[in-house]
């Protein structure tokens, strides 16, 4: 009998110690979102920029990342775990830790609805509204396997964050168009972006912004313009409608599609833009063809 009591006591003590000192979170919030993990990750990034003190997300993958928020005089860590259910639904689990008041919260949580709990729920409800508003601003469809185009083109190379990709395009749209027009260079299709390197963890993007042209003897010699030929290759294709700032939502969708189909891809998307954003209009009517190249057998 004494042995049984000792075992029970050890279990109780062990459980209490785990709850107070080893449990990875003070509070947990679960909800469903009508988006894939990559879209949720990018939306958390944008939402995070709205806080007074912005601390960059600690990225592990689009499905697992850590957010640090300063709340009054406390540091709260939000550990995001996102499981894709299907191509338009994810389960989201957020484990929340108050770095300065963890023990206090754990003692109070079982007995009352604390300010820490209600404040955490309020913040995540605000995020959910932010996400739903964002989702209303774009849509995309996956068309499956396709082939990119072949073209000779004039390009400007840019290095930005993914969020500033469209800003870089718009800053060079008139510049590239103007120089080509002055030299009577004939355009041969809509402008496009060729991604050279996309570093999700460090939030950097290197890309060529290009105009397809007819090769001629009148090509202007300018230090910021290069000429190259790109060749067609096998790819997965999506059609994106919305502001070009957030067209990378289709990149994540193509990555998910490739993963589900076991298709090896290069994370170097190509985007073809069929509307000039400088002309304004309904963004949901702007059309972008998005290609994610498939790796060749020898790569």
Can you characterise this structure?
The chain has 299 residues and is α+β, with helices and mostly antiparallel strands. The protein folds into two domains: 19-136, 2-Layer Sandwich (Alpha-D-Glucose-1,6-Bisphosphate, Chain A, domain 4), CATH 3.30.530; 141-293, Multidrug-efflux Transporter 1 Regulator Bmrr, Chain A, CATH 3.20.80.10. 31% of the residues lie in helices and 35% in strands. The chain has six helices and 13 strands. The strands form two sheets. It has an eight-stranded antiparallel beta sheet with strand order 6-11-13-12-8-9-7-10. A hairpin with a 2-residue loop joins strand 2 and strand 3. Helix 2 packs across helix 4. Mean pLDDT is 87; it is low at 10-24.
Task: For the structure shown, list the relevant keywords.
299 residues; alpha+beta; Alpha-D-Glucose-1,6-Bisphosphate, Chain A, domain 4; Multidrug-efflux Transporter 1 Regulator Bmrr, Chain A; 2 domains; eight-stranded antiparallel β-sheet; five-stranded antiparallel β-sheet; 6 helices; elongated
Explain the layout of strands and helices.
Elements: H1 2-22, E1 27-33, H2 37-48, E2 58-61, E3 64-71, E4 74-86, E5 89-98, H3 102-108, H4 115-135, E6 138-147, E7 151-160, H5 165-182, E8 192-199, E9 204-212, E10 226-230, E11 234-242, H6 248-261, E12 270-273, E13 287-293
Helix pairs in contact: 2-4
Organism: Flagellimonas okinawensis
Keywords: Membrane, Transmembrane, Transmembrane helix
Protein name: AraC family transcriptional regulator
């Amino acid at each position: 009998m004494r042995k049984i009591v000792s075992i029970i006591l050890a279990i109780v003590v062990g459980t209490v110690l785990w709850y107070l000192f080893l449990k990875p979170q003070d509070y947990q919030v679960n909800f469903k979102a009508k988006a894939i993990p990559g879209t949720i990750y990018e939306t958390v990034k944008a939402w995070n920029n709205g806080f007074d003190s912005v601390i960059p997300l600690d990225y592990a993958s689009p499905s697992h990342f850590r957010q640090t928020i300063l709340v009054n005089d406390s540091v709260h860590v939000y550990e995001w775990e996102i499981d894709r259910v299907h191509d338009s639904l994810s389960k989201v689990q957020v484990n929340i830790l108050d770095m300065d008041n963890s023990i206090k919260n754990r003692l109070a949580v079982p007995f009352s609805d604390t300010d820490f709990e209600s404040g955490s729920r309020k913040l995540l409800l605000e995020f959910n509204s932010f996400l739903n508003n964002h989702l209303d601003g774009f849509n995309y469809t996956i068309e499956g396997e396709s082939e990119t185009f072949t073209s000779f083109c004039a390009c400007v190379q840019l290095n930005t964050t993914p969020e500033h990709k469209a800003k870089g395009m718009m800053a060079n749209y008139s510049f590239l168009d103007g120089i080509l027009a002055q030299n009577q260079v004939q355009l041969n299709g809509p402008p496009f972006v060729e991604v050279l390197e996309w570093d999700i963890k460090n939030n950097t993007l290197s890309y060529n912004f290009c105009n397809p042209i007819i090769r001629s003897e009148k090509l202007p010699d300018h230090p910021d313009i290069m000429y190259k030929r790109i060749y067609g290759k096998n790819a997965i294709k999506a059609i994106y409608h919305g502001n070009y700032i957030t067209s990378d939502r289709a990149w994540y969708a193509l990555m998910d599609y490739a993963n589900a189909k076991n298709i090896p891809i290069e994370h170097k998307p190509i985007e073809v833009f069929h509307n000039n954003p400088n002309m304004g209009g309904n963004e949901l009517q702007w059309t972008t063809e998005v290609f994610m190249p498939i790796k060749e057998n020898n790569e």
